Amino acid sequence: MYQYNDFDEAFVRERVAQFRAQVARRIDGSLTEDEFRPLRLMNGLYLQLHAYMLRVAVPYGTLNPSQMRQLAYIADRWDKGYGHFTTRQNIQFNWPQLADVPDMLEALADVGMHAIQTSGNTIRNVTADHFAGAAADEIEDPRPVAELLRQWSTDHPEFQFLPRKFKIAITGSPNDRAVTRAHDIGLRMVRNADGEPGFEVIVGGGLGRTPMIGKVIKEFLPKADLLPYVEAVVSVWNLLGRRDNKYKARIKITVHEHGIDEIRDLVDARFEQIKATFAGVVRQLLAEIEHFFQPPQFSTKPVTGFDSERLANPAFRSWTDTNLAQHRNPDYAIVSVSIKKHGATPGDATSDQMRALADIAETYGHGELRISHEQNVILPHVHKSDLPAVYQALRAADLATANIGLISDIIACPGMDYCALATARSIPIAQEIATRFEDLKLEHDIGPLKIKISGCINACGHHHVGHIGILGLDRAGVENYQITLGGDHTQDAVIGEKTGPGFSYEDITDAIERIVMTYLSLRSDPAEEFLAAYKRLGAEPFKAALYSEAKAHAAE
Amino acid sequence: MSRAFLPKVVTANLLIEGTSVWLTEADVWSPRMCDAEFIEDEAHAEIRLLFAKSQPQTVVGPYLADARLGVNGPEPVHFREAFRGRGPSNYAHGAQVEA
């Protein structure tokens, strides 16, 4: 993976020193909160409901064991012994004290990490397919391009005060696991007629209060044109974007108001203007960066013990059925480690678990770890003969839950348990749903089903693209949960449809159960997954199940 | 006619720790809402908020929150303030164990 060069190192250290001085000036009264706030946000430091929160970027979701151990150290030394992995492949620490944050940033810099541009109206952490570099369906590892984008966007002088935040996601696979159609820019690797890899460029996607699926602005962009083209997009939006209204400032609104064709023309014109200034730079930088992303030396040892352990150990078999994905090397598997134990907080890992993951990655996983936008941890390269040992090690760390892609593998934002913007809680809803279906022993029968929960309209929990989406709102001083159905986060992205009136905190889990029971009773056969059944059946039977009881009460 | 004034408390977060605190009659900040000064007069509420805003080296973002009087002192009206006063629901962290 990428190693900081002298420039990166000096830049990050200087930012830490600057922030240390800024914190000192805030504490001694030289800076007002109004002056300090934008400075702390530029360094990922929020003030939430109960405490400060430090959001640390995990660039394109990639971590090495030393970095994971350092995150564990930070959690123990300056927080409460855990971290929260987010839908943007970041990690958040929920309890830092202001005076400690410079030391936390220094500790991050020690392992080539930072919290720069994890907030503010800037280009945020570039997210990527969490199976990048390992997936069987991948054209190329997208992470060198993601790293190039990180370098280009970090402290980019033109883009430090954008109309609003700007999020880029990238995938090297036709099967989109990076939600590229719900980002400001989505980059999806495709091949042209000559078989050369490049990118389909999607703009104007986003969730939040005005959810929109991104539109294709360029069907094929050669890799060599990537930076000037992306810069042209951001630059056009930087001028056109609605600074008069923060709710209309994201590029999705700009694209919606001007139309994709006008935006395309403007971007093409800007691209022509600036591309000469990038001449050769992309190719040269990419070549340097690609050197850091060489695949590991895959073992050629025979695959032994995997099938026999599957036969002998039903728990292992169940885990391999749900938590493994196909690796491009047939002797290997991609392991998704569930950070969604039933009843636990989605995405929260203790410092001990982080250290266990680092050890496992080092011993069995070629030293690679990924954070997924679904708030799980990935071991991208595990030889199949090592899977029984990996499973045992995960069990010892309480990390062997076999539920990837199932109903308890829920995305949930921090919600009103932590977030100052939230309008309702998310975490306890996720905990209760997971526990309910665990108690019913139904989740393996239900099969693939993605529930995504947001505690406010900003949609950090991606509820619009959940097969079942839950949005927590404040209705007249009471928590209320609105349900959407049929959302899809993949290359076939769809915004889910609202079912109708929302449900109370007490009733939402029952409502979800009624939806799921309806699916189980109406699916054509056990192989028909929830989303397929919903597409076939439409919303009506689910609405009937949700609201018939309420109507019956009303009629009484 | 203007709406009736709902009783208030002054609340904020501590600058260094970030934790939620409430302004007491004795001009000190308490980690417990029940210790807060219960303010029933609108003009007095504004004065107390100004006082809070004059302490930028102690607290961040002071504001007036609706409150009602309970047995032990002021209580939250809105669930957001209840959560601020209690801490998160997923762990025994924050005010529920430290206040």
Q: What report would you give on this structure?
A:
The complex is a heterodimer of chains A (556) and B (99). Chain A is an alpha+beta fold. In chain A, 38% of the residues lie in helices and 17% in strands. In chain A, strands 16, 17, 18, 19, 20 and 21 form a six-stranded mixed sheet that branches. In chain A, strands 1-2-5-4-13 form a five-stranded antiparallel sheet. Chain A has a five-stranded antiparallel sheet with strand order 3-14-15-12-11. Chain A is globular and about 60 Å long. The N and C termini of chain A lie far apart (65 Å). The model of chain A has no long low-confidence stretch (mean pLDDT 96). Chain B is of the alpha+beta class and 99 residues long. Chain B is built from three helices and five strands. The longest helix of chain B is centred in the middle third of the chain and has 12 residues, at 42-53. Chain B is globular and about 40 Å long. Chains A and B meet through α14 of A and α2 of B.
Q: Count every beta strand of chain B, where a strand is a DSSP E run of 2 or more residues.
A: 5
Low-confidence region ranges of chain A: none
Overall pLDDT confidence of chain A? 96
Q: What oligomerization state is this entry in?
A: heterodimer
Strand elements of chain A, count: 21
Identify the biggest protein-protein contact and residues per side: A-B, 32 and 25 residues
Topology, element by element:
The complex is a heterodimer of chains A (556) and B (99).
Chain A: H1 6-27, H2 33-42, E1 45-47, E2 52-57, E3 62-63, H3 65-78, E4 82-85, E5 90-93, H4 101-109, E6 127-128, H5 143-153, E7 168-171, E8 185-191, E9 197-203, E10 215-222, H6 226-240, H7 251-258, H8 260-274, H9 281-290, H10 306-312, H11 314-323, E11 324-326, E12 332-337, E13 348-350, H12 351-364, E14 369-371, E15 377-383, H13 387-396, E16 411-412, H14 427-440, H15 443-446, E17 451-454, E18 468-475, E19 478-485, E20 497-498, E21 503-504, H16 508-522, H17 530-537, H18 540-555
Helix pairs in contact in A: 1-2, 1-4, 3-4, 3-12, 5-9, 6-8, 7-8, 10-11, 12-13, 14-16, 16-17, 16-18
Chain B: E1 8-14, E2 20-23, E3 29-30, H1 42-53, E4 59-69, E5 74-76, H2 79-86, H3 95-98
Antiparallel strand pairs in B: 1-2, 1-4, 2-3, 4-5
